[in-house]
Amino acid sequence: MNPAALLALDQVRNDSLGSPLNNVSPFWIDVVALALLLGVAAHGEVSVLSSLGILLACVLMIWCALRSNAYYHFIIDTPKSRINSASQGFVELHGTCDLFGNRQTQGFLTGPPCVWHRYSIWSSAPVPFKTGASTLPFSLTDDSGSCVVDPRGAKIISSSRRTWIADGKRISSKYIRPGASVYILGELRTQRAESMQYKKGVEVSKLLSRWKKDRRWVVDEFDRNGDGKIDCGEWEVARERAEEISLRLHSERTADAADHVIGRPSNGMPFIIADRDPCVLGTFFRVLGLINVALAVACFAWFCLRLL
């Protein structure tokens, strides 16, 4: 989806809701696994159901270990790219984030300005818990250029959080502030501006018209026989030069107008956005994977002991 279409998603207000279940984190699967183990421990009695609970927790932790290890290797092994020189496809980008388009502000309710947020609301209403996430695009800029970030479907890890009480509701928002240093692992797509079509005759005529206004330069540049005039053969040389220059100028303008968009990979590879250092992020997933391996072994040993 191009940037214009992404902006069209924002039709009413700055806050756009998304599913919090996109790209489920291994951490939350761990929570489910540990809850199963605590339930089995609290039950106390040996039964088929409790043994199956332990086995399920073991399977979940193995899945978490594999998922965490995959994240670790993708983060550590993917080389860093610059936006304007990055190849199309799966890339790793680092840069400074900011609001995209003409948007002056963006955030959730009275929360701080941000380029992305995820919120949760606790209240005494018939539906006591609500959650959602922003799906609006934002920009990423490095020393080579900028691109548009489509956060839909991303696993987003943010360092900033704010919690407040309003109208008897407890509201919590995790967010990425404008100007933050952001790490992104995803699929880069470049779309050229469709409206900038090359019209050879028009472009060449414009360039030749400008040259004719400076007759002295034209004579100095293209008068090969030194008679102070431009004959048909010399004018043909000038036209060929104008064609070459106009084509090069058009290519440069088209390159400048290219729309770089990074979003969710189409081949199922991970899509990660984080306002943290990638080395720290990789270490976190590495440790999380090792912890899950240890817990999975402990669960399996417990399962075997219950069968004795």
Textual characterization of the structure:
Strand 8 and strand 9 (169-176) form a beta hairpin. This protein has helices at residues 3-7, 26-43, 48-77, 200-212, 215-222, 232-256, 278-307, and strands at residues 80-81, 89-99, 116-122, 129-133, 138-141, 146-149, 155-157, 160-166, 169-176, 181-191, 259-263, 272-274. The protein has seven helices and twelve strands. With 308 residues, it is of the alpha+beta class. Helix 2 (26-43) runs antiparallel to helix 3. The longest helix is centred in the N-terminal third of the chain and has 30 residues, at 48-77. It has a five-stranded mixed beta barrel with strand order 2-5-6-11-10. Strands 4-3-9-8 form a four-stranded antiparallel beta sheet, with no helix packed on it. The radius of gyration is 29 Å and the shape is elongated. It folds into two domains: 3-192 and 258-307, no CATH class; 200-255.
Give me the oligomer status. Answer: single chain
Q: Tell me the domain tally.
A: 2
As laid out across the biggest beta sheet, the strand order is 2-5-6-11-10
Percent of residues in helices: 40-55%
Radius of gyration: 29 Å
The overall strand count is 12
Helix run count:
7
- As residue ranges, the low-confidence spans are 2-23
What separation lies between the terminal Cα atoms?
57 Å
Largest sheet: 5 strands, mixed, barrel
Main structural class: alpha+beta
Shape: elongated
Give the mean pLDDT: 76
H-E order: HHHEEEEEEEEEEHHHEEH
Content of β-strand: 15-25%
